[in-house]
C-alpha cells in the first residue's frame, strides 16, 4: 500500500464502520480527497451521540441500523472505528472478499508527512502523550506539533494539520492497533501491559500481541526506536521480541540503571537520566517533577526518551519536565479543605491504575471506589486498600462485589461505607470521617458507565462537588 493515500483515494468507494469521532473524521477526510464514502453504524440515529451534520453536508451516505454484507457491494476499502472489533460480521465479510481493512490511525499514518511518535500501554498513555507533546512543542512550536489518537482528537486531522515540519504524537489504544498493518511510527512506546479489555481481545496473549503491533513495522534501517518498560513483566518480553526483530530498544526503568543496555532511560542518584551509547545525559531530579507516584516517573522517563531520540535538545526536555503539571483526572489535586486534601483520579478505570494511585500517597487515605465493574481480580487491590486506607467508600454497580472482596481481604466492615449511586453522598461520608492530614481520593478501579457518560464526566462531577463544599 502506498504511503500517500492522497494519490489513490479518487475513484475509491470506501465504507467507514462506526459513527464515532474517529469514524466521522475518516469519512470526511476520505470524501475531501475524492472518494465515494459510505458510513455505516449498527445504531439508529437517535442512539448516536456524535453530530452527523457535517457528514450529510459533505455528501457522505449514511447507513444506520442493521448492518448486512450487502453494504460491501462495490467497496474498495473499509475503515473500522476503534469500537468496531475485527470479529464484527461486516469486517469479517470484508476480509472474506479480500477488501483491505484499516483503522483511522492507519489512515493517518499514510497521510502523515511528519514523523509519528506513538505511545500505547494499559495505563499512563494520556499523561505520557500530553507530556511528550509538550516536549516536541518546545522544539517545533504548538502549530507544528500534533497530538491525537485515543486522546480525543482524530489522528488523521492532526496529521493533515501540521504538514511535514514537526512531530505527530499519537496515543494509540489496543482497539486502534487491531486493524493496522502498515502503521510505522518513528518511535514507539509501550508503557505497561496489565489485564484490561479482555472481553474484546480474549486472552492476555492476544492483548499483548495487539499492543506489540505498534513496533511491528519498525527497523534499524529506518532509524527507528522502541521505548519499552524494563520493569513491567510483560513489556520485558516485548523488549526481547523487539530486539529479535533488530529494532533499537531504549528500555526505561525506575529500579535499574540498565548497565548492559546501549540505550536507556532511568534514575541515577535520584535524577532522570538518558543513556545514548557511551554518554549519559542528566535531566531533572525526581523530586522536581510535579506529577505524583512511581508510575508517573516511568511516564516521564518514557516521554524524555521519546523526545531525546526524536531530536529534542536536553535543555528543552529539562525545562518542560520541571513545568509539567498533572493531567486532568489523573491524581489531579482538587482542593484542600480543613486540612484534608482532595484528589481526582477518575481515570483509574482498572485496579492496576488505582493501585498506582494508592502507592503515590504516604498520608492516610479515604478512598472512593466502585462503578461499572470490569470483574477483574481484586486481591492485590484490597491488600493495598487495607494497608493504606482508613475508610473505603463504595459507589455504583460494583459496590456489592467490592464490599465482599474487601471483607475477604481482612478490611473491617466498619471501615467500609456505601453511598449507592450517589457520588455526592460518597464525598459527604468521606468529609464526615476525614481528619486533618488525610487525603480523600477518588480512584474508582472501575469504568463509569453505570452512573456517568465517561470517566471525564465522573471526574468533573467530583470536582464540582468538592469545590462546592464550604
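^ C-alpha cells above, recovered residues below v
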Amino acid at each position: 500500500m502506498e504511503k500517500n493515500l492522497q494519490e489513490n483515494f479518487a475513484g475509491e468507494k470506501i465504507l467507514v464502520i462506526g459513527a464515532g469521532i474517529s469514524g466521522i473524521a475518516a469519512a470526511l477526510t476520505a470524501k475531501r480527497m475524492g472518494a465515494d464514502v459510505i458510513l455505516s453504524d449498527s445504531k439508529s440515529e437517535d442512539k448516536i451521540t456524535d453530530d452527523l451534520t457535517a457528514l450529510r453536508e459533505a455528501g457522505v451516505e449514511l447507513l444506520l441500523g442493521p448492518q448486512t454484507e450487502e453494504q460491501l457491494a462495490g467497496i474498495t476499502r473499509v475503515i473500522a472505528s476503534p469500537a468496531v472489533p475485527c470479529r464484527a460480521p461486516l469486517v469479517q465479510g470484508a476480509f472474506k472478499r479480500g477488501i483491505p481493512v484499516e483503522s483511522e490511525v492507519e489512515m493517518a499514518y499514510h497521510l502523515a508527512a511528519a514523523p509519528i511518535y506513538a505511545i500505547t500501554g494499559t495505563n499512563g498513555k494520556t499523561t505520557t502523550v500530553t507530556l511528550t507533546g509538550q516536549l516536541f512543542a518546545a522544539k517545533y512550536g504548538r502549530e507544528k506539533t500534533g497530538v491525537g489518537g485515543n486522546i480525543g482528537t482524530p489522528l488523521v486531522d492532526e496529521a493533515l494539520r501540521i504538514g511535514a515540519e514537526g512531530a505527530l504524537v499519537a496515543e494509540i489504544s489496543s482497539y486502534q492497533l487491531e486493524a493496522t498493518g502498515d502503521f510505522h511510527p518513528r518511535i514507539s512506546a509501550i508503557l505497561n501491559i496489565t489485564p484490561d479489555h479482555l472481553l474484546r481481545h480474549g486472552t492476555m496473549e492476544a492483548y499483548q500481541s495487539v499492543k506489540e503491533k505498534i513496533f511491528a513495522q519498525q527497523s534499524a534501517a529506518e532509524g527507528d526506536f522502541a521505548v519499552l518498560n524494563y520493569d513491567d513483566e510483560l513489556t520485558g518480553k516485548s523488549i526481547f521480541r523487539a530486539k529479535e526483530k533488530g529494532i533499537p530498544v531504549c528500555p526505561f526503568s525506575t529500579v535499574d540503571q540498565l548497565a548492559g543496555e546501549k540505550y536507556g532511560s532511568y534514575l541515577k542518584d535520584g535524577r532522570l537520566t538518558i543513556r545514548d551509547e557511551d554518554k549519559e545525559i542528566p535531566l531533572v531530579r525526581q523530586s522536581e517533577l510535579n506529577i505524583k507516584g512511581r508510575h508517573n516517573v516511568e511516564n516521564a522517563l518514557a516521554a524524555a526518551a521519546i523526545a531525546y531520540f526524536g531530536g529534542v535538545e536536553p535543555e528543552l526536555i529539562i525545562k518542560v519536565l520541571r513545568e509539567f503539571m498533572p493531567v486532568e483526572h489523573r491524581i489531579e489535586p482538587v482542593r484542600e479543605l480543613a486540612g484534608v486534601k482532595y484528589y481526582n483520579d477518575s481515570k483509574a478505570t482498572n485496579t492496576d491504575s488505582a493501585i498506582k494511585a494508592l502507592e503515590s500517597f504516604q498520608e492516610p487515605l479515604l478512598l472512593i471506589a466502585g462503578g461499572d465493574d470490569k470483574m477483574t481480580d481484586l486481591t492485590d487491590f484490597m491488600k493495598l486498600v487495607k494497608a493504606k486506607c482508613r475508610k473505603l467508600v463504595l459507589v455504583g454497580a460494583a459496590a456489592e462485589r467490592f464490599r465482599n472482596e474487601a471483607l475477604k481481604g481482612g478490611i473491617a466492615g466498619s471501615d467500609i461505607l456505601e453511598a449507592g449511586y450517589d457520588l455526592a453522598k460518597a464525598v459527604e461520608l468521606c468529609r464526615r470521617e476525614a481528619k486533618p492530614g488525610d487525603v480523600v481520593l477518588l480512584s474508582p478501579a472501575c469504568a463509569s458507565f453505570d452512573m456517568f457518560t465517561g470517566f471525564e464526566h465522573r471526574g468533573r462531577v467530583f470536582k464540582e462537588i468538592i469545590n462546592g463544599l464550604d
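The two ends are 61 Å apart (CA to CA).
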